[in-house]
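Supplementary material to the annual report.
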Amino acid sequence: MQGRIEYFQIFGINFGHLYKKYYLCARFCTPKKLDLSVLYHLHTSNCGGVQHKFIYFFHNRLIMRHYEVTFIVDPVLSGDEVKSTAEQIQREIAAAGATVIAVDEIGLRQLAYQINRRSSGVYFCIEFACLTAEWLGKFELNMKRNERLLRFLTVKLDKYGVKYNDDKRSGRIGKKKKESVAATSDEAAPAPAVVDLDAK
Amino acid sequence: MAASREDVKFLSNPKIGLRHKKYCRFRKFGIKYIDYKDSDFLLQFINEQGKLLPRRITGNSLKYQRRVSTAVKRARHLGMLPFVADLMK
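Predicted assembly:
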């Protein structure tokens, strides 16, 4: 507990006296293992740190908001260009003070209908967490102006979505069909009742 | 030649009167999140023309029917499912 307050003082954030009891709790950092980079972002990003009203607390925990952006890159570009496009978007997210949690490269896929006269596209999906969200408007505008992208979609994830993505990454969910989510969550809502799939 | 009792049994389908009760698969299996990127899964909820199937056929509860519909709409936007199709399945 004391260590946490020290961190706040190191970066000169006023949380110390405002929210004495509160501590950062992102999904990926348990209270014990505090992610310093999150605090650093909070301090350095132009939107974080000062505007307390935009930062949410729940049960004494600082809430990170999770988003997911899926975009389709033009398949005409070379492999390197496609990669650099994705990396550039990642950098943009990181520069805004968000933490990139996972980058899912879905790969080349046939489109169900033509977009900009292309019938296929390279899909990417980036999950990220941030404390404030007002930079997203600017981010989406940049995405819109990016001519290498065919289309994109930013979605806010609820706690089940976060958990689903987490389970998917660790291979707990089958590729074909989702199964009932295992009762592993500690802070999420009451775990779903154990269902026997063979019972029917 | 009158049919005996055993023959009558085969002349009519005994399952005709029975109907399976529909249920919401999300409720039943505890699925809380519907992934819009999983187009194979979402295919179960659209018909051959790519239209959403009504609740009275899929048996979804209202809450999850709403989520299915947003997921399908997102998938359509991303070109994973068609807006209109013919003989999709």
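Helices of chain B lie at 5-11, 25-29, 39-42, 55-58, 62-77.
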